[in-house]
Amino acid sequence: MAQKRTVLAEYTVALDVRSQEVVMKIGIDPARERLAVSFVENGKEVDYLVVSNDQKGHRQLIKRAREYEKEPRIYIEGYGSFAKRFSLSCRAHNIELYEINPYMSNQFRKSLTFDKSDHIDAFSIAKYAEFKDDFCPIEADGKIEGIKKMTRECNSVTKSIAALKNKLHVNLQHNYGPVYKKFFSNFATMTSMNFFISFPSPQKLIEASIKDIHDVLKKHARMYRKKHGRKKAEEIHDLIKKSYSYDYGYFTELNTELVVIQLKQLNALLRAKKQLKKTIEMFVEKHFMEYKKVLDETFDSIGIISIGTMVAEIGKISNFKNDGHLASYAGQAPKNHSSGGKRKKQHRKRSYNRHLARIIHITAINNKKKGCAFYEYSQRLEKRFSKTLRAIKSIKRIICRKLYNAFKKAEAMQKEEQNAA
Questions:
Q1: Rg (alpha carbons) of the chain, rounded to whole number
Q2: By three-state DSSP, how is residue 51 classified?
Q3: This model's pTM is above 0.85
Q4: How many degrees, rounded to 5, is the angle at CA 235 between CA 230 and CA 238?
Q5: Which residues pair with 338 in a beta bridge?
Q6: Average pLDDT over residues 368-386
């Protein structure tokens, strides 16, 4: 029975093949103002260069690289922040750029030396590329990079909104006690936020008349303009009169100011999220309609923001060998962990795309509901394992397979349209 090839065996074969053809590796350690560049050939550094991180420096680097190789292969440690513009410059000059995971390159550097500098980092990146040369090229497409920034910012704003809501719940409870939750079913609406901005403490609400309360309510909601608004104002007035609110002096005074500040922040964040979602939806419908069509057919419950995130984080599906490779990239495949000929408990990979993992988890949750694609399958797994999370884990692996096939189909449709045009 043939044994499976180990990871070390794969590296050894790759090194044997590359030893026949010496290819220069160019490693870059990016920073805000400059790029440290190391040119390594056959394990030895032949040149070192420091250029400014702007168009002039990019052209200088590319010119030097082409002096050594007509088609240079450049490796960079994380291109998400300071190296974003350089990746777009490489695409403009038809140069292949490869990303190396910062955690992996850092661990490799530690195996070479305990010292750290921009020069050492750039050299270790190039050396690591010699050791393990199976990286996918960065597809620095302007549309992909743009939608990636938008979807990640939308996710960040969503998290900020959730955190701010939790803080507001605490601060409103400090001022009002539990009675504030009886005023509105959801305090994150325009009506409720402006109400608490007008009456951030129970003392101000007690001093206000029913007419004052009604005026604030009807200003931001049509439903409160007539009798219903008057009735709501009376209910709130009665609730605050019956509650046992107490003024804690300076604490209440400062907490009241904090409530107003946080409500205004929440209002601004909600508007920003609305604008981000609108922009993402318009962009996806304009530039990635094929992906939207295929993913809508594949999954019963998937939003356009989720589609935009998947397109942004996966990029070109041709970069992945198979659905298992995509699952590993999304953190849905365990890493190999064995010692002494025994396979130990499976561990989750530390280096994977957390943005893609998050959206796959949300898709799994939405599609295991009653009436959706994975409902019956999830019910069977939950009975079998007696664990909901174990069922979700299996669903996420299936989603990776379906995503791979859907993206292959969408990419083929996109190429057909381009050829037809």
A1: 28
A2: strand
A3: no
A4: 125
A5: 343
A6: 85
